[in-house]
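Weekly sync, protein design subgroup
Attendees: M.S., D.O., the rotation student, P.L. (late)

Item 1: inverse folding check
M.S. brought a backbone from last month's batch and wanted to see whether the design step gives back something sensible before we order anything. D.O. pointed out we never logged the input encoding, so this time it goes straight into the notes. Structure tokens as presented (558 positions):
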């Protein structure tokens, strides 16, 4: 697309030899992280481990060729996996083959939605999810992940889908805990968490699982393991589902696309900041869409990015997506020669990998920071979290987005406003609450700090009337400072006309100051400027106030 630069990997002559060593080291490290995560996240999504590998192997090269982040670690990710699984399970009726086809279909729909959004340059959609929504969502996902692994981690018989019910079953059945299963899970989890804290660049999941496997084999412990893995490399095919399934899955796919893309863009931007390159939001949509379409055709499931697989390469010093190609090659080699080793991984160990991921995304500090700044936004984060846990991920996100939009509309419909006074010793006008402000007798300077539209037109009238009542003196002039009014709509124009007529009936001269060109053009087309007179429109407050003073002195004017 026009205006989009090529990624570092394919830009001719841009790759430097000095980048090779950190890129190779990063690729090897991420491969060591990806192998157990691909298996764990596929199982989390209700699919065999091979689905995780197939998804990863198409995502890595595609993103490397299209994406604009030098560090983003794409592939299987728990949030999108569990969100898609909830939708697919409702239609699968317990049929594993149909379930796999539905998961692949969701990935394809996610990809198509993202590709269309990229073509039409909808990269801004990532901004729809505010920080409180994201904190509440990701924490809800983390808690959902945590409860989803209680059975595999402890051996307790848990069959509920709802996280709250799962916890209730677990507490009621504590006597069913299998000590061996719990010991394997805890030891693996402990290794992962310790390495994450003290050696974050090390592949903690791989080391933890490897140590657990060796211990289980040495002690000849009888415990549930992953079992045989289909090592076949991806083969492109179209999922065999009907049109009715496609339409039923479309809303869930839209939710997955929004969440997955937002996760991608936020992670990519947080890493690129200060590292000398920028992220192209629209190209990221294309990369996200392409890798999910390919994942669908390879029998995979919806993918996004992993924060851990993204920040580790940045920490090591990787400079390009060549590291992803190294990761791709290592995973292929591992599938060709190492599947017998993967088959012996204990299920409790994989559960520990997912629980460690859950601990990483539960953002209690984010809640604390938000609560310190805004109670309403903290409440939004809590509602999002509870909706994600108590209902389902997609509904939780939709509820949160809806509440976020209502809060935003409330702020826009009731924006800040102020009466202004001349700043003593200052070349400008400031709010009258400032001790340096000096209101002028007979003059009201009023500022409205928000767009003027149908939802706040009446409020605008009420606030101007209240300002006139509060302002000292008998007003002969009102100056409307329009700098904060970025736009107006036709409904607001009618309210503005009504205000002007109301004030003129009281012999109050109305002037406009600092209106932008867009607003002036609309007011001109609506006849408001003609009604006021062009001499009542001023580029600055000082010019409007000087006109008031001239009239107050009785000067005839220019």
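Designed sequence read out in the meeting:
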């Amino acid at each position: 697309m026009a205006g989009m630069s090529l990624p570092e990997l394919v830009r001719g002559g841009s790759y430097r030899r000095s980048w090779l060593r950190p890129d190779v080291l990063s690729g090897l490290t991420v491969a060591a992280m990806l192998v157990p995560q691909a298996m764990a996240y596929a199982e989390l999504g209700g699919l065999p481990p091979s689905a995780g590998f197939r998804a990863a192997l198409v995502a890595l090269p595609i993103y490397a060729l299209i994406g604009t982040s030098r560090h983003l670690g794409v592939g299987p990710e728990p949030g999108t996996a569990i969100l898609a699984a909830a939708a697919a399970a409702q239609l699968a009726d317990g049929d594993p083959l149909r379930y796999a086809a539905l998961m692949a279909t969701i990935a394809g729909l996610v990809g198509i939605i993202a590709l269309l959004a990229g073509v039409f340059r909808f990269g801004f959609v990532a901004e729809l999810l505010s920080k409180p929504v994201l904190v509440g969502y990701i924490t809800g996902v983390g808690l959902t992940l945590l409860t989803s692994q209680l059975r595999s981690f402890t051996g307790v018989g848990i069959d509920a889908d709802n996280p709250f019910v799962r916890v209730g079953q677990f507490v009621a059945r504590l006597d069913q805990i299998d000590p061996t299963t719990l010991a394997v899970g805890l030891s693996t989890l402990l290794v992962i968490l310790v390495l994450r804290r003290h050696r974050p660049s090390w592949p903690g999941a791989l080391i933890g699982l490897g140590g657990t496997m060796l211990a289980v084999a040495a002690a000849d412990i009888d415990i549930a393991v992953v079992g045989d893995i289909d090592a076949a490399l991806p083969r492109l095919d179209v999922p065999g589902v009907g049109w009715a399934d496609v339409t039923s899955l479309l809303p869930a796919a839209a939710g997955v696309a929004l969440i997955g893309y937002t996760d991608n863009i936020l992670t990519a931007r947080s890493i690129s900041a200060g590292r000398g390159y920028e992220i192209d939001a629209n190209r990221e949509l294309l990369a996200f869409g392409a890798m999910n379409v390919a994942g669908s055709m390879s029998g995979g499931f919806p993918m996004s990015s992993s924060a851990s697989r993204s920040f580790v390469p940045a920490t090591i010093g990787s400079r390009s997506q060549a590291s992803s190609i190294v990761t791709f090659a290592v995973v292929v080699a591992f599938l060709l020669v190492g599947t017998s080793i993967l088959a012996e991984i204990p299920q409790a160990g994989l559960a520990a990998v997912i629980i460690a991921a859950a601990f990483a995304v539960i953002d209690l500090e984010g809640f604390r920071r938000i609560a310190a700044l805004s109670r309403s936004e903290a409440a939004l984060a809590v509602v999002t979290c509870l909706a994600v846990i108590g209902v389902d991920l997609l509904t939780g996100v939709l509820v949160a987005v809806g509440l976020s939009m209502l809060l935003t509309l409330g702020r826009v419909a009731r924006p800040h406003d102020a009466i202004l006074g001349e700043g003593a010793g200052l070349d400008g006008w400031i709010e009258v609450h400032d001790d340096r402000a000096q209101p002028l007798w007979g003059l009201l300077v009023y500022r409205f700090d928000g767009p003027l539209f149908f939802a706040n037109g009446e409020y605008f009238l009420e606030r101007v009337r209240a300002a006139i009542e509060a302002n000292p003196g008998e007003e002969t002039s009102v100056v409307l400072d329009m700098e904060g009014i970025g736009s107006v709509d036709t409904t607001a124009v009618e309210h503005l006309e009504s205000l002007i007529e109301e004030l003129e009936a009281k012999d109050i001269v109305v002037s406009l100051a600092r209106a932008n060109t867009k607003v002036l053009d609309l007011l001109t087309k609506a006849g408001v400027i003609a009604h006021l007179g062009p001499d009542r429109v001023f580029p600055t407050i000082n010019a409007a106030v000087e006109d008031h003073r001239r009239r107050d002195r009785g000067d005839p004017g220019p």
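Discussion: Residues 1-5 have pLDDT under 50 and may be disordered. The chain has two domains: 19-227+236-408, 417-553.
Action: P.L. to compare against the previous round before Friday.
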